[in-house]
## 1
Amino acid sequence: DLEFYGVWRRIVEFEISRNKLKTISDNTVVEFGVHGAIGKRIGGVSSRDVNIDIDTLLNNLYSIVKSSQEDPSWQGFSKGYSKGVDVENYDKNIVEATYEKGVEILEASMNESIDYAKRNGAENVNVSAGGLSLTYGGVLIANIDGEEMYGEGTNSSFSLEVVSSKAGRSSSFFAYHSSSRLSMSEILEEARRAGEYSVKFIDAKPVESGEYTII
């Protein structure tokens, strides 16, 4: 018995350092594996080389499966896949986002966090680190019986570390937001929280020792 599992992802990342956009990277990664079974002996091989010789791959798999120990609980690979494309967690705004759009989001978020920090009393504000990652890709599962299932998905993740100071004291706050969709309003809300709490934490005091209820 044979089963194929493959994943591809395109990841576009924007990196912030000291109030400035430092780098933009754009990479596509492909990973796949083949699982095999002979009786109750199972094994698998994987690769990132899309040009790999298939005969070599399957010969390696055969050797691994033959030399593996039997699994008495093995019931076989899943069957009866529902065919088609699953796009439940798919946002075309991530797929179609340009470099300019990513830069626009980060500039707006930095300005928002700095503005909120100053509104809350900060004398100096620095966005020391952060970034935006936009990912989309697909997963394909197929078996030797001709069944297959393919799904695509997207993800956006945003982070910001804001350092604020006043009256000779400083503190920082790290904000993070992740979603299967790209929402400017949610990112800006997190940026405002980073600015606000970077100032609030300046006056933070140690908690007194004792017994507390933790939720």
## 2
Amino acid sequence: MRSGRVAGPGIDKRMTNENRIGIMGGTFDPLHMAHLVAAEEGRAAFGLDRVIFMPAGEPPHKADHPTSEAEHRYAMALLGTAENPYFEVSRLEIERPGPSYSVDTIRALRGAMGSEVEIYFIAGSDEILDIESWYEAESLPRLARFVAVPRPGFDLSELERLLPAQFMSSIEVLSMREINVSATEIRRRVATGKSIRYLVPGSVEAYIRKHGLYTLENGT
């Protein structure tokens, strides 16, 4: 297993024979099976040498919604990805002050890895449909390719109609079956005492129980 640690501004420079890197951004509150399946499907479909899971430090799109402490989310991402040798977890956004903007993360990776490396940013179709609202969105098509993962309730056929050509030229649609699992539903199930087995890896479920996450008493 890779160490999974990319501390502070430092970026893993092990780029020998690596030409394509995936970024799986998200809050991961908690990491669940849909995240893992999407990352693995994306890795296989686009020939990615590795996929870096990037827990957000301060998610700008969830400023009005409380999230679990970053260290909890990072720990769950580490535990949940441990069995896949192509997955690792970065602390880059957690240790960078201020809102976790994807454009800053991609630039940091691009600066460390060089222009010859292709970066594939994997995100849910709901997020990709909203890409024009991302921070410094106009810069994104020049920095990376974006992989739209099917999500229940979001029509990927709408991408071409709703997004300008400058964005569509950098977007790939991942062909896979929709997986109806969400972090919101998992938190709700924990809070109401329902099982989350098979919705998250067993190690993540154990961590949630051990630390009392998402219970009504804990509040997150």
